[in-house]
Design goal:
The complex is a heterodimer of chains A (933) and B (301). Chain A has 933 residues and is mostly helical. Among the domains of chain A are: 159 residues, no CATH class; 131 residues. Chain A has 37 helices and 4 strands. In chain A, helix 8 packs antiparallel against helix 9 and helix 28 runs antiparallel to helix 29. The longest helix of chain A is centred in the C-terminal third of the chain and has 46 residues. The radius of gyration of chain A is 47 Å and the shape is elongated. Chain B folds into 2 domains: 141 residues, Immunoglobulin-like (Sandwich); 132 residues, Immunoglobulin-like. In chain B, 3% of the residues lie in helices and 61% in strands. In chain B, strands 2, 3, 6, 7, 10, 11 and 12 form a 7-stranded mixed β-sheet that branches. In chain B, strands 15, 17, 18, 20, 21 and 22 form a 6-stranded mixed β-sheet that branches. Classes of the chains: A mainly alpha (933), B mainly beta (301). Chains A and B meet through helix 5 and helix 7 of A and strand 18 and strand 19 of B. Chain A: One of its GO terms (molecular function) is cargo adaptor activity.
Chain lengths: 933, 301
């Protein structure tokens, strides 16, 4: 008898209109005070509730309409009852035994032939009657609930009983103990019957409509639950009627709970059980649940339908407890005293016992269930007993031993376990607490890599999270080996993490990737992020006030964890190295200070030396694995370390490090076949651009200028080598520039030392220097005696070798001259002019006015030549180029032309400014004497 | 008849306290409602007969008598009437009436054995008949019907104890349905309430609803040519929807509002009236399953 939706709608419409019609007639009759016709109409519209063909929702619609209409009737009845009562009071003549008018009505409506209208009428009149004074409420209650048995049709019965409970809910007597018991009985009885009907609905109709039934029942569940809600309220409202021994908890435990749960168990219906247990947990106060916990767990949960997800129920219950606990905590905070709950502490034990029983009873329990349950237990334990980790360990131990042994763990299951593990991570304020859980790690190890990663990331995030519930907290430092081990054993999986192999066929380029190693390798941003996080953790390794120990811990980490995956060294080692270096620097400075004060600590010296050695071993390891693509990074690391070593006066080590730099340079940077595109695309005119090799040379040179503690010999060795490297670069502009930069290596311009200290480079060779100086003075015809004297006076002990400087400048001039591109050549000339001016200001006698004038002239000539070329040779060049590649289009050529013109103009402008500068300086500062602008 | 041959006399029968006496509405065969005074068994019938002459004529008569008659009319093979009660009193000796004259009469403590009844094929009535005998023309008569209620005495304790256990019945169809029903008693006063319950022991039928009906059965005549007429007086739904095993459905039926008559067996060996309580179960295919049982009704004061 399946009706289509449109049919149902049509039926619904006709029902509604008929109800409205009859209800209007009823109102008219009531206005005319014709009660019996009104009842007749009432019965007529109630007949609509007998329909079979509506869905529960539609039925509810007409139910509501009728409910409203019946309210009108009820109000009318009440009013007329009251007026009659008043008349009686006034007259007083009539006997008191006169049967009440509502009682008669209650009987009259029972003649109604159909049961549905009859019962609705009975209820509306009965409840109205109950609301009047002196009504036999309890008899009425009993009678109505008894008669409701007549409706066995699930939907109609449910609504009828719902109507009863709605109408009666504010009339239930509970002032005396007897009344209260009757009321509770009434509610429970109604609940039981409604539940029966509700469960029965499932089995109505064709079996193919089972799903539909299920849905319908879901829609109706609130009707059933309403009884329990009211019951809870009543129990809450009842204060025990002078019975001092009355305790609502006890009452619930003895009376209400067994009846209700028995009903729930008996009905064996999945939906009913899940919904009702949920309602039970939600609506009754927490105290009740504490009182009945054992029964609830062991008698009820274990006896539920086997397909029920106990985990959900347990989770709800535990959530309930947790929120209760939080509430109590809040409360006690307000009051300022802790509420010592009865046997709350044993909660975990009780739950755990239940869990073991459950396992015994249902060995086939799916893993999700286990996981959910355990997760709930963990939250419970964490909330109620945050300092007790034994419980947690019990959980993990169990999980490790019992649950993960099954080999065919599915993806979902694993995910569950991840959930299980991450619960405490989220909860703990300090991640260190985690290390106290013995079995946490064991359980963790049972997971597959992917999930281990997830957990590890969670741990890392937790560790790194600076914010804790809005308060910025101090980062927690890892200061001893157990702690380091504790966290790094979880990090290991991340350390060993390999960049995901990107498969374009499957990913379709959706995954964002970054190309590294000259495009040979692709990594995801997530991967980089992870590595970055590891680095951040490394930064947390800190032993306060003991940098040496910190260093040894860092070394330990490297040895034990970081070098497990050589491919990823490049991401983590730089951090590690700089961290060690930082600590080493601290130690070194302290050592230096002590030495200054005359306290020589040889062992400390030794320690520092050995640590530097270790450090270089680390860098070497990194170099071994990553020389191909990351040589420049490694070079920089070496240079950093070298700087520090120099500052700490570790000359031999520093020298060694520079040698390493050179090795790196020679092996990997001098001729790297895979030039970084980033560098090669730079315009040769750009001062900052250049090949990697050029960059490296400049970098080395930069560091070298700042070293102060080499012996002269060593220093000169090194700088000569760098300059040589520079002069052998592939490109002219690189050569030129690096050489003129290197010129600075021979002419220190600042001491970079604390006052009173002297540089080793000069000290060792002060004698040589003097000789040298004399020589230079002799050689130079137009030496600057003033300046030389000046130097001597001040005794600024800076390493200076003017001749070499000049040589370098000459060399770069030659290189610049040999450039094929005249514009570039001009540019380089101007740059060299700049350098010359600098050295001139520094007081290098070799770079004198004559030399500079010559250079200026050279530049001027060049400019003139180029200008001429432009005027006449524009066409020629074009022709030439055309011949070279005929395919290139006119536009390109013009562009090229323009570019050159622009460059030329720029060069001219730079030159002009330089000249302006010179003349300005001549005027204001008296410098650049003899330079002709 | 009296329209065509206008009787020279008006006979009026007045009963004592007729206004204050209780009356009952009875349907006439023509379908109109008739109000009749109610008498009990053993109650004296007392009244006055007034004779009035018309137009001041003189009417001679050979005597006036009043009769209290009880008769049963049955319709089995043609209308048969038989009297079971006949009392008569002379009211006046032969005389000439010139002016209205009243004669009181009284039938003292008349035993009215049966209750008045108007059924389909049987009728039991009590009536007063005043006859004015005349020599010339036919006698002039006037009838007035009384309605007799038989009140059974409230049950003696001895009687009530026996049905206190109630009427219990097990019925069913094998492997389909097994129900047990129980009424508090089998004897009911007409103002009583039938209270009971139905207990479903086995339900394999798809029951749609369940009704209780009261059937009045009138039997006229002796077994060979007996006529039985059944009429469903009340139809009362007591259950909606299909119950499951173990369900108990309550029954409560107020009888007061229905037009029921007490149970009479073999009234003067002419007819019987019985009432049956019928429990009807209707399944989804509109098949009806029923069980009837007789209940004894009686009239109570």
């Amino acid at each position: 008898m399946a009706l289509s939706a449109s049919d149902q709608k049509a039926i619904l419409q006709s029902c509604i209109s008929s109800i409205n019609h009859e209800s209007n007639l009823m109102k008219q009759s009531l206005n005319d005070h014709k009660l019996l016709p009104a009842l007749k109409h009432c019965s007529n519209f109630l007949n609509e509730l007998r329909t079979n063909s509506l869905s529960p929702k539609q039925y509810y619609e007409i139910y509501m309409l009728i409910f409203d209409s019946l309210e009108i009737l009820s109000t009318y009845l009440l009013n007329s009852h009251n007026s009659k009562q008043n008349k009686l009071m006034k007259a007083k003549t009539s006997e008191e035994t006169q049967t009440p008018f509502l009682a008669d009505l209650y009987e009259i409506v029972q003649y109604s032939g159909n049961i549905i209208p009859r019962l609705y009428l009975m209820i509306v009149i009965g409840t109205t009657y109950m609301s009047t004074k002196g009504a036999p409420s309890k008899e009425l209650m009993k009678d109505m609930i008894e008669m409701c048995h007549g409706v066995q049709h699930p939907i109609r019965g449910l609504f009828l009983r719902y109507y009863l409970s709605q109408r009666i809910k504010n009339l239930l007597p509970f002032s005396t103990a007897a009344d209260f018991h009757d009321t509770v009985e009434f509610l429970i009885a109604n609940f039981i019957e409604m539940n029966k009907l509700w469960v029965r609905l499932q089995h109505q109709g064709h079996s193919s409509e089972r799903e539909l039934r299920y849905q319908e029942r879901k829609e109706l569940k609130i009707l059933v639950g309403s009884n329990l809600v009211r019951l809870s309220q009543i129990i809450d409202d009842y204060k025990g009627d002078e019975d001092e021994h009355y305790s609502s908890t006890q009452f619930y435990h003895d009376k209400v709970f067994p009846t209700i749960t028995e009903q729930i168990i008996q009905c064996r219906d999945h939906l009913a059980q899940s919904y009702l247990i949920d309602v039970l947990i939600q609506i009754f106060p927490d105290d009740f649940h504490f009182a009945t916990l054992d029964e609830l767990l062991n008698d009820v949960f274990l006896n539920l339908n086997a397909t029920m997800k106990k985990s959900e129920l347990v989770a709800t219950l535990i959530e309930r407890f947790i929120s209760y606990k939080n509430y109590v905590v809040d409360l006690s905070e307000d009051k300022g005293k802790a509420n010592t709950s009865n046997d709350v502490e044993k909660l975990f034990g009780r739950f755990w016992a239940f869990y073991l029983k459950l396992n015994k009873q249902e060995p086939e329990l799916p893993a999700e269930e286990h996981s959910m349950l355990l997760q709930s237990f963990i939250s419970l334990s964490l909330t109620f007993d945050p300092d007790n980790f034994e419980n947690l360990d019990v959980v993990y131990k169990y999980a490790t031993n019992e649950l993960t042994n099954q080999e065919n763990t599915s993806q979902e299951q694993e995910e569950m376990w991840v959930q299980l593990l991450s619960t405490p991570i989220r909860h703990f304020t300090s991640i260190k607490t985690l290390f106290k859980l013995e079995f946490f790690h064991e359980f963790y190890l049972k997971l597959n890599k992917e999930f281990q990663r997830k957990i590890s990331l969670a741990i890392v995030d937790k560790t790194l999270s600076v914010e804790n519930e809005g308060n910025i907290r101090e980062p927690e430092y890892l200061s001893n080996t157990p702690e380091i081990d504790g966290i790094f054993k979880y990090l290991l999986v991340l350390i060993k993490d390999k960049p995901v192999k990107v498969n374009t066929a499957t990913d379709l380029g959706v995954m964002k990737t970054i190309k590294i190693n000259n495009g040979e390798k692709q990594i995801t941003p997530e991967f980089i992020e992870t590595q970055e996080k590891i680095c951040k953790i490394i930064h947390l390794v800190e032993i306060p006030d003991d940098p040496l120990k910190t260093i040894s811990q860092l070394m330990y980490i490297r040895k034990k964890y970081l070098n497990k995956e050589v491919g990823n060294l490049i991401f983590t080692y730089p951090t590690l190295i700089s961290r060690i270096l930082f600590k080493l620097k601290l130690v070194g400075y302290v050592n230096l200070e002590q030495k200054k004060r005359g306290q020589n600590d040889d062992s400390l010296d030794l320690l520092i030396t050995s640590n530097f050695k270790n450090l270089s071993v680390i860098i070497d390891e990194l170099y071994q694995h990553h020389q191909e693509y990351s040589a420049d990074v490694i070079l920089n690391i070496y240079l950093n370390v070298a700087t520090v070593a120099d500052q700490l006066r570790q000359e031999s080590i520093c020298y060694e490090l520079f040698t390493q730099c050179f090795v790196v340079y020679e092996e990997n940077l001098i001729l790297n076949s895979h030039q970084y595109k980033y560098y090669t695309h730079m315009s040769p005119h750009d001062v900052l651009g250049g090949s990697l090799a050029y960059q490296s040379v400049v970098a080395i040179a930069n560091v070298l200028t700042k070293t102060r503690f080499f012996t002269k010999e060593n220093y000169e060795n090194l700088i000569t080598k760098v300059t040589l490297y520079g002069s052998k670069l592939l490109k002219k502009q690189d050569q030129c520039r690096s050489v003129y930069y290197c010129a600075h290596l021979w002419w220190w311009s600042e001491t970079l030392l604390p006052p009173g200290e002297k540089t080793a480079t000069i000290e060792s060779s002060s004698k040589d220097r003097k000789q040298e100086k004399e020589e230079t003075e002799d050689k130079q015809e137009h030496s600057d005696p003033e300046k030389a004297a000046h130097e001597d006076d001040e005794e600024v002990l800076l390493y200076r070798d003017g001749k070499r400087v000049l040589e370098c400048l000459q060399k770069s001039l030659r290189v610049a001259d040999s450039c094929m591109d005249p514009y570039l050549s001009l540019k380089l000339f101007i740059e060299i002019l700049g350098r010359c001016l600098i050295f001139n200001i520094y007081g290098n006698g070799y770079v004198d006015a004559r030399y500079i004038n010559g250079l200026i002239d050279l530049i001027k000539t060049n400019i003139e030549n180029l200008k001429d070329d432009e005027q006449e040779g524009g066409g020629e060049e074009e022709e030439e180029e055309e011949q070279e590649d005929k395919d290139t289009k006119e536009d390109d050529e013009e562009e090229e032309e323009e570019k050159e013109a622009v460059l030329f103009k720029q060069s001219q402008k730079v030159f002009e400014r330089t000249l302006n500068y010179i003349s300005e300086q001549q005027e204001t500062e008296g410098r650049f004497e003899g330079i002709i602008v | 008849m009296s329209i065509f041959f206008k009787a020279p006399l008006d006979i009026e029968i007045r009963l004592d306290n007729e206004e204050s006496r209780k009356h009952v509405d009875v349907k006439t065969p023509q379908g109109r409602m008739e109000k009749l005074p109610i008498y009990k068994d053993g109650e004296s019938v007392k009244g006055t007969v007034t004779l009035r002459t018309r137009d001041g004529r003189k009417v001679e008569h050979l005597g006036v008598k009043v009769q209290l008659l009880g008769s049963i009319d049955t319709n089995v093979d043609g209308l048969v009437s038989s009297e079971f009660l006949s009392l008569a009193t002379e009211l006046a000796a032969p005389a000439q009436l010139t002016h209205p004259e009243s004669y009181p009469f009284e039938f003292k403590n008349v035993e009215k054995q049966y209750e008045s009844y108007r059924g389909k094929n049987a009728k039991l009535r009590y009536y007063l008949k005043v006859t004015v005998l005349r020599k010339s023309s036919a006698e002039i008569t006037r009838e007035k019907e009384l309605w007799v209620f038989h009140y059974s005495a409230p049950q003696t304790p001895a009687v009530t104890t026996i049905p206190a256990a109630g009427v219990k019945m097990d019925v069913g169809i094998e492997d389909c349905l097994h129900i047990e029903f129980e009424y508090s008693k089998s004897r009911f006063s007409l103002t009583d309430v039938i209270v009971g319950r139905i207990y479903f022991l086995l339900v394999r039928l798809k029951i749609k609803h369940m009704e209780l009906s009261l059937i009045r059965r009138e039997t006229v005549g002796a077994p060979p040519n007996q006529i039985t007429d059944s009429e469903t007086v009340v139809r009362f739904e007591i259950m909606d929807g299909a119950p499951v095993k173990g369900e108990t459905i309550p029954i409560r039926l107020f009888l007061n509002g229905f037009d029921l008559i007490p149970t009479y067996r073999d009234v003067n060996k002419k007819f019987s009236t019985r009432t049956y309580l019928s429990l009807v179960l209707i399944d989804e295919d509109a098949r009806r399953y029923f069980k009837q049982s007789e209940i004894i009704l009686y009239r109570e004061q």
